[in-house]
Amino acid sequence: MHITLDGFVAGPQGELQWAQVDEELFDYIGKRIQTGDTALYGRKTYQMMEDYWPTAGEKPNATKHEVEHSTWYKNVHKVVLSKSLQGANLKNTTIISDNLADELAKVKQQAGSDILLFGSPTATHCLIEQNLIDGFWLFLNPIILGQGIPLFKNIENKINLQLLPTTRQFSNGVTELNYEVVR
């Protein structure tokens, strides 16, 4: 998840144009997400992803990133947290609308590797509230917005974190931070 130095994951209206991305970052993220076989989204992020990624790689002027991410997106199991989204016909997609902890535990018990949460600040807030996040994979952007949608809000209990050795800085100034939640 991209984050600003002052802790925002989006501007006040959900803007993301401040997030610095380039081929170096796309290549790195592309390699990293190959280890995940489940993508977790909130409804809004899922709908944005679903509107773009299934066919993005098929366009005549598609970039390397679009081709690779589109292929991954079509194959990955998607889990969507939503009380309003309906869709028994959604291919390779599970909707969780209640009993979040129990339903997510079922997903975790399935064969596979990492479950990666993409964007989705509202879903992230809900998962943090219920202590359901095992780690934070953040891309710290060298910008201060001053206002926006925070990554952390209404935290009632402290969350202990351990920095993992995969931290690195990219040439565009973005710093990757990987934290494991210490329980």
Strand count, sense and barrel status of the largest sheet are:
5 strands, mixed
pLDDT < 50 stretches:
none
Quaternary arrangement of the chains shown? single chain
β-strand percent reads: 25-35%
Count of helix runs: 5
How many individual domains?
A: 1
Protein name: Bacterial bifunctional deaminase-reductase C-terminal domain-containing protein
Pfam families: RibD_C (PF01872)
Domain Bacterial bifunctional deaminase-reductase C-terminal: 2-166
InterPro entries: DHFR-like_dom_sf (IPR024072), RibDG_C (IPR002734), Riboflavin_Biosynth_HTPR (IPR050765)
Write a brief caption for the model.
The protein is of the alpha/beta class and 183 residues long.
Structure description:
This is Bacterial bifunctional deaminase-reductase C-terminal domain-containing protein. The chain is an alpha/beta fold. It has one domain: Dihydrofolate Reductase, subunit A, CATH 3.40.430.10. It is built from five helices and eleven strands; from the N terminus they run ββαβααββαβαβββββ. Strands 1, 7, 9, 10 and 11 form a five-stranded mixed sheet that branches. A hairpin with a 5-residue loop joins β10 and β11 (175-182). The two termini are 22 Å apart.
